[in-house]
Design a protein that fits this description.
The complex is a heterodimer of chains A (356) and B (513). By secondary structure, chain A is mainly alpha-helical. Chain A is built from 13 helices and no strands. The chains are: A mainly alpha (356), B alpha/beta (513).
C-alpha cells in the first residue's frame, strides 16, 4: 500500500466507518434496552428512508440543508475557524431569499426570480458570516464566541421582523411567496411523490463542486488552507491571515445561507420563524464526519438526514430521541477515532512488517 | 574495563514508527564510568534508542539491560528509580520557579506538611558543590542563561540519584566557553562514578570528551570504537557510509572573493526591533551586505538574531530604523512585496514557518510564490508538478514523489525542500537562518555548497547559525551579536573561535566597524 492510499484510508475513510460501527453497536444496546429486536428496528429505519420513495425524498430534502451547513462549517475549519453560527446564517439566508421573493411581482419568470433569491440567500448568510470574520481580523475576537452570540442576535432580529412586520396573523411565517419558487422533484419524477425534495439539491451539488474546486484548485483556496493548517508558515509565505479569515467566514456564511432556499423556496414558499430547527448546529457534525471535504460532507449529510428521517419511521417501536442519542455517539466516536485509528493501524502494520 | 556487567547493554533493539524502521537490531554496550558518544546523522535513530533506554517508549524487539539486570520495557519512573535519567534537547523547567524548586520538583523536602524551601536550597547547594555544577540555587530559572538552565537539568537528575546520564545534543544551544565548562562537569561526574551517554552529531565533541563511540546509520549501530583508536574521518565515513569532505565542516575552504566593492544589496540602519518579552530585542543594529558576499552572524541563540531576521523578512514590526533592499526602502512593506523585491528567506524553524507539513512537497515548493504558479486565480497544476519534479532531481530530495506530504520526509529532506524553494526563486538577497539545523552531514555539505554557489552568482547572503564553525566556514565577514547588538565585526581572516568566543558571551566588547 503506498503512502497516499494509506493516508487517505487512515484520515478520511476509517474514522467515519469506525464511528458508524460504534454507533451501530450502541444502537443495538439501546434498542434492546427498549425490549425490541435490533434487526427489526434497523430494517424499519432503512425501509422508512431508503426503502420507499417518499422517505427517500425526505432524506434528500433534509440532506440538502445539512449539506449547506456542513459545507459552511467545513470551509471555516479549513481556514482554521470554528463557525458555530451556521444556524443564524441559515436563518438569515432563508429570510433574505423570502424577502426578495415577496418583493418580486407575482409571475416573475423563475429564470430571473430564482437566481435573485439565491443571491439574496448567499448575501444575507454571507453578511452574517463576515461579521465574526471582520472582528477576528481587526480585533482578534474569537470567532467561536462571536458566532455563538450572533446566533442569538440574528434569530431574535428575524423573529422581530417576522412577528412585527411580515407575518400572517396567528402564524409565525410570512405571507406566501409568489415568485422564485423552486420546483419539487416530484413534479418531474413521480417517485418522489409527496416528499419535500426539490431542485435546490442541484444548486447545492454545484455549490459543493465549487467549494471543492475553490479549496483545492485555486490560489485563494491554497492560501486559505495554508492559514488553517499553519498560520505562521502562511504569514511567512506573504499570506495575510486577516483577509483569509474575512473571506472564509463570508463564504462560510453564504454557504449556510444557501441552505435557506431549500425550505423557503423549495418546500413551504414562505419564511417561517424557527425553520432551521438545529440544522445549522448539526452542520458541525456533518463537517466533522465529512472530514471537511466537500464529497465527505455530502455523504455525511445523507447519513444524518437518514438518521433524522429514520427516527420518524421507528417512532412506534423506540422513541425517536434514540436517533439523536445515536447522532451524539457518532460525533463522539469520530472525534475520538481519528488519532486512535491512526495509531492502531500503524502498530498493526509495523507488526505485520516485523513478522515475516 | 573490569569484569563486571556493563552499565548499559542494549541488544538487537527494533523499533517502528509506522512505516519507519527507526531502530534496526541496534546494539549498544556502555561500560561503567565512561563517557560514551552516540553519533549518527539526523534520523539515524539515536534519540529513539535513548528513549527506549530511558523508558519513554517501548522497543518492538530486543532487550534492555542496565547493570546486568534485564529491564526491557520499563517505564520512565522505573528508569529514574534505577538511576537512569535523560537530559532532553528542549529543557523541561518551570521558568517561574527557582533553581532549587525546579531541582526538587516532584520530590520536595517536606517539614510539618509544607514545602521546606530552606532545606531544598541547602540540598541543592550541596549538590552543586559536589558535582561542580555551579548554579545559584535561589535564582529564578527564567533569569538563567541557557548554559545554566542545562546545568539545572543535570542537577535534577543527580538529585534523583541518577548514575547513568543520557544527554541529547547538549551543546546545540551553548557558546564555546559553556561547552568547555560542560566537558569539565561531565568528566568530573564520570570520575565520581557516573556513566554518561552523549548524543551528538559533532565529531569534534566525540574526539574531545568521549572514551568510546558508537556510530548509528539508518537505525543500525554500524560501528563501535575506542575514541583513541579512531579519527573524525573514520567516524564520518561510518556515519554517512562513504567518504566525506570534512574541510566543509571543519574550517578550510575559505572565502575567495569578498563581494563587489562599493555595491550594496542589503542595507540596515539603526534598526530597533521589539521582542516577545523585551523592548529592544534588536538594539540599534546597522550593517550592509554587498552582492557576492556572505555576512555571518555569530552568537548564542536568543541574542536578537531571530528578531533581526524576522524584521528584515517582514514578519516582525520595526520600532525604528530602515531596511533598504537594492536601493528601495522596504522597511514598511509586506512579506509578499519584499519577496517580489528580491528577498529570499530560509527561516530558522522549518516546522513552524518554512513548511506546511500537511501540504505535499509540490505545494510546499511554491509556498510564498503561489502567485507565480497561478493563471487567473487557478493553480497551474501542470507547472507546479513540473517545478517540483525538477527541484526534486536538482536537490536530490528523497523520496521523490512530489505528492507526498512534507511530514513524511526526514528532517534533512524537509530542509532541502526549503532550500530548493528559496534558492530557485529570483532573488538578490538571501536570509539564511540556521540553514543546516538538524540536518545530516551529507546534506550539510550540499547546503553549504549551495550557499557558496549563491554567493558566486552575486547574491548577498545574511547567514545566522548557532554553529560557530558554520559561520566561520562560510562567511566573508562575521558579526557577533550579543544582547541585541552587534558587539564585533571581523573579516574572515581575523576570525577564529578563540577570538569570537568571548564576544559571544558578552565577556568582551569591541568596536563595530
Amino acid at each position: 500500500m503506498n503512502t497516499r492510499t494509506r493516508v487517505l484510508l487512515e484520515e478520511s475513510v476509517l474514522p467515519p466507518l469506525v464511528a458508524l460501527v460504534v454507533a451501530l453497536v450502541a444502537g443495538d444496546l439501546l434498542i434492546m434496552a427498549y425490549g425490541q429486536a435490533p434487526g427489526v428496528v434497523w430494517r424499519a429505519l432503512l425501509e422508512g428512508t431508503w426503502g420507499n420513495s417518499y422517505g427517500f425524498g425526505q432524506v434528500l430534502y433534509k440532506a440538502t440543508t445539512l449539506a449547506c451547513t456542513g459545507l459552511a462549517v467545513a470551509v471555516g475549519l479549513r481556514a482554521g475557524l470554528f463557525n458555530i453560527g451556521a444556524e443564524g446564517q441559515l436563518a438569515a439566508g432563508g429570510f433574505g431569499a423570502g424577502l426578495v421573493g415577496l418583493m418580486l411581482p407575482a409571475g416573475t419568470p423563475a429564470l430571473i426570480a430564482v437566481p435573485l433569491c439565491v443571491l439574496a440567500a448567499l448575501a444575507a448568510g454571507g453578511a452574517v458570516g463576515s461579521v465574526p470574520g471582520i472582528l477576528r481580523a481587526r480585533f482578534g475576537a474569537h470567532e467561536v464566541i462571536v458566532t455563538i452570540m450572533l446566533n442569538f442576535i440574528v434569530l431574535a432580529l428575524l423573529n422581530y421582523f417576522v412577528s412585527a412586520k411580515l407575518h400572517v396573523p396567528e402564524t409565525l411565517h410570512t405571507p406566501e411567496i409568489h415568485a422564485g419558487a423552486v420546483a419539487r422533484l416530484s413534479g418531474t419524477f413521480d417517485a418522489f411523490h409527496g416528499s419535500a425534495a426539490n431542485w435546490t439539491i442541484v444548486i447545492v451539488l454545484l455549490a459543493a463542486a465549487f467549494v471543492w474546486g475553490f479549496l483545492f484548485r485555486t490560489r485563494a483556496g491554497y492560501e486559505l488552507r495554508a492559514v488553517g493548517l499553519q498560520s505562521d508558515a502562511a504569514e511567512y509565505a506573504g499570506i495575510r491571515a486577516g483577509r483569509v479569515w474575512f473571506s472564509a467566514m463570508a463564504m462560510s456564511g453564504a454557504l449556510a445561507g444557501l441552505g435557506g432556499i431549500n425550505f423557503v423556496l423549495g418546500y413551504k414558499n414562505y419564511y417561517e420563524d424557527g425553520f432551521t430547527g438545529g440544522a445549522g448546529f448539526l452542520g458541525i457534525a456533518v463537517a466533522l464526519i465529512g472530514r471537511n471535504n466537500p464529497v465527505g460532507v455530502l455523504l455525511a449529510a445523507l447519513f444524518f438526514a437518514t438518521l433524522s428521517q429514520g427516527g420518524l419511521a421507528i417512532n412506534a417501536m423506540v422513541p425517536k430521541q434514540m436517533v439523536e442519542v445515536l447522532q451524539g455517539i457518532v460525533i463522539l466516536a469520530v472525534a475520538t477515532a481519528v488519532p486512535e485509528v491512526r495509531r492502531l493501524l500503524r502498530s498493526a502494520m509495523s507488526r505485520r512488517k516485523a513478522a515475516p | 574495563m573490569n569484569g563486571a556487567a556493563p552499565a548499559i547493554r542494549l541488544t538487537a533493539i527494533d523499533k517502528y514508527f509506522g512505516a519507519v524502521h527507526a531502530n534496526r537490531s541496534a546494539s549498544l554496550v556502555v561500560q561503567e564510568r565512561e563517557i560514551h558518544a552516540l553519533v549518527g546523522e539526523n534520523g539515524a535513530g539515536k534519540s529513539t534508542l535513548m528513549k527506549i533506554l530511558s523508558g519513554m517508549t517501548p522497543a518492538d524487539g530486543g532487550t534492555v539491560e542496565v547493570g546486568g539486570r534485564d529491564v526491557t520495557g520499563w517505564t520512565t519512573a522505573e528508569a529514574i528509580a534505577a538511576g537512569v535519567g535523560m537530559v532532553h534537547q528542549h529543557f523541561m523547567l518551570v521558568p517561574t520557579l527557582t533553581v532549587a524548586e525546579n531541582v526538587v520538583l516532584g520530590r520536595e523536602p517536606v517539614s510539618a506538611g509544607t514545602f521546606d524551601r530552606a532545606r531544598a536550597e541547602r540540598d541543592v547547594e550541596r549538590l552543586c558543590e559536589q558535582s561542580g555544577l555551579a548554579v545559584p540555587a535561589g535564582r529564578l530559572v527564567a533569569d538563567l542563561s541557557v548554559g545554566e538552565a542545562q546545568r539545572v537539568e543535570i542537577l535534577k537528575l543527580l538529585y534523583r540519584g541518577a548514575r547513568v546520564l543520557l544527554l541529547d545534543e547538549p551543546t546545540a544551544v551553548l557558546s564555546p566557553p559553556e561547552v568547555a565548562e560542560l566537558w569539565k562537569v561531565l568528566r568530573r561526574l564520570r570520575d565520581g562514578g557516573a556513566t554518561i551517554v552523549l548524543i551528538t552529531h559533532k565529531l569534534d565533541e566525540v574526539m574531545a570528551v568521549s572514551e568510546h563511540v558508537t556510530v548509528m546509520r539508518m537505525g543500525e549501530t554500524v560501528a563501535n570504537m575506542a575514541t583513541s583508536d579512531t579519527s573524525p574521518e573514520k567516524i564520518a565515513k561510518a556515519m554517512v557510509g562513504r567518504d566525506v569532505d570534512l574541510a566543509v565542516r571543519q574550517g578550510g575552504g575559505a572565502a575567495k572573493l569578498a563581494g563587489t566593492p562599493g555595491a550594496v544589496a542589503l542595507d540596515v540602519r539603526h534598526l530597533v526591533v521589539r521582542g516577545a518579552r523585551i523592548e529592544k530585542a534588536v538594539d540599534d543594529v546597522s550593517f550592509s551586505i554587498a552582492p557576492g558576499e556572505i555576512l555571518g552572524i555569530a552568537g548564542v541563540e536568543g541574542n536578537g538574531q531571530t528578531e533581526l531576521l524576522e524584521a528584515i523578512a517582514g514578519l516582525r514590526g520595526v520600532t525604528s530604523g530602515t531596511i533598504t533592499l537594492g536601493g528601495a526602502d522596504i522597511t514598511h512593506r509586506g512579506v509578499h512585496n519584499r519577496g517580489e523585491a528580491g528577498l529570499s528567506h530560509i527561516p530558522e524553524d522549518r516546522h513552524r514557518r518554512g513548511l506546511i507539513l500537511d501540504y505535499t512537497m509540490a505545494e510546499n515548493l511554491i509556498l510564498g510564490q503561489q502567485h507565480h504558479y497561478t493563471n487567473n486565480g487557478i493553480l497551474d497544476r501542470h507547472n507546479i508538478i513540473d517545478h517540483a519534479r525538477r527541484r526534486i532531481v536538482e536537490y536530490d530530495i528523497r523520496p521523490t514523489d512530489p505528492s507526498l506530504p512534507a511530514r513524511a520526509l526526514s528532517g534533512g529532506n524537509q530542509q532541502k525542500i526549503v532550500i530548493a524553494r528559496e534558492l530557485s526563486r529570483a532573488f538578490t538577497v538571501l536570509l539564511a537562518a540556521q540553514p543546516t539545523r538538524g540536518v545530516d552531514v551529507g546534506a550539510i555539505e550540499f547546503i553549504h555548497a549551495e550557499l557558496r554557489k549563491a554567493r558566486e552568482e552575486g547574491k548577498a547572503v545574511l547567514l545566522v547559525s548557532a554553529e560557530l564553525k558554520e559561520v566561520l566556514t562560510l562567511s566573508d565577514r562575521i558579526a557577533v551579536m550579543y544582547g541585541g547588538r552587534f558587539v564585533a565585526m571581523f573579516p574572515r581572516s581575523d576570525a577564529s573561535e578563540e577570538v569570537i568566543g568571548p564576544f559571544m558571551t558578552g565577556a568582551a566588547r569591541g568596536q563595530v566597524a
